[in-house]
Amino acid sequence: MSNDGGWCGQRLGVEYNQTIFGGAMRLSRRPAHGRVSITRHKDGTDVYYKPNPGYIGQDAFSVLVDFYNIDKPYKVVVQ
Description:
The chain has one domain. It is 0% helix and 63% strand. It has strands spanning 8-12, 14-16, 19-21, 25-29, 34-41, 44-51, 57-65, 70-78. The chain starts with 7 loop residues before the first strand and ends with a strand.
């Protein structure tokens, strides 16, 4: 991702009985060089990352999906 001061991310959904909805998620590992935003919606949960101003390099964080107790790791490269 480019360090243009903006956020990047994706929408995740939890499927249960053929219905996709926003699951309860929380940070289980914080990034060292940025911030993470988790916003739950009816049809998914947005997970976004924003690097610290001027940061270039790798960063990582993990999100725990509470419904299934699954830890989803993310690795980002900031350019």
